[in-house]
TrEMBL record:
One Gene Ontology term of the molecular function aspect: cytokine activity
Species this protein is from: Phallusia mammillata
UniProt keyword annotations, A-Z: Developmental protein, Disulfide bond, Extracellular matrix, Glycoprotein, Lipoprotein, Secreted, Wnt signaling pathway
Name the record gives this protein: Protein Wnt
Chief localization: secreted
Amino acid sequence: MFSNSRVSFQFVTILIYITVVCVSQVNSHWWSLATKTLLVGSSSVEQCDNELGFSHSQRQLCRTYANHMKYVKDGAENGIKECKYQFRLNRWNCSTAVNDITVFGKVLKIGSKETAFTYAVAAAGVVVSVAQACKNGLLQECGCSRAPRPQGISSSWNWGGCGDDTDYAYGFAKEFIDARERDTNPSNKSKHKARKEMNLRNNEAGRLVAVRSSEPTCKCHGVSGSCNVRTCWMKLSGFREIGNKLKSKYNSAIEVVAKKRGRRQLDFTPRKRSDVITPTSLVYLESSPDYCVKNRRTGVKGTKGRECNVDSNGPDGCGLMCCGRGYRVVHKQIVEKCNCRFQWCCTVICDQCPSNVKRYVCK
Ligand SMILES: *[C@@H]1O[C@H](CO)[C@@H](O)[C@H](O)[C@H]1NC(C)=O
């Protein structure tokens, strides 16, 4: 009896262990780096092993590229920030939870178009932050872009000012970010395989949109600003522009069906005949959950308590945002700067004026 219960105790322990490891493997995410404080110096390598958000290969890559992790973190942070900005007026607003290794919660288990956007924007974030780190001389492994002179840049201009190193950043981001999808192999179920493929494609779309946002930028020199001498280089767009581009990719995201081809290959075909998948398409497998009502099972937070805009007919309007449940009016007092005046010399002095504003909040 005693030994029996010990055996079963051990069995249960092992079972719990397996469950914890597997579950964290499936849901944990390198994005969680965004919420962490990175240690610098020798201990940073130690941190690689303790980083619960990393997959097995990502831990190894973290050790090899310890100096890159700051930029992976910055990239994730910028990606998450941009996601929140782009979806601030939507029912799903890209909300994150602190101290959660899944970052966005359970809702990203659903292979929805919102999930697709999140993967893409985070991948784009890493490309941008690594490319800029290269250009700024912050990483030994890379430097100025070596992109050849593009067409349209006159040969009379100097080509090759120090540009964002998108080639290197793309390569690194691919290796690091996609490692997660290659590692986690919870089962051979075709559903999991399809989801991996979805993640890989959206990662790639994000990286490509970032890389392709790179454009020649020139600076004039020459006698008193005559601009007869110019130096040009490749420069990435600001992250807002990349975010806008990805949001429009989200708006035209393509629902796909996974079909087996041979034993290992998986083909994605668009559900709608007229859709054409390109390398920068965002693709998704499942329709979005109902983001209206809090749901523990799906991880949806619901729109109760969200602010809405009574004057808008868009997704932020009280009708759509509150899903027809109606809204409350909240009176709020805010303090604003007012009666600002210039004082010689050289300050601006303002008063603090309270004013009442109405806010509309979903029931
Ligand atoms: C995003 O949505 C969540 C859940 O509905 C809410 O708690 C949070 O305040 C929202 N964030 C913003 C910036 O509106």
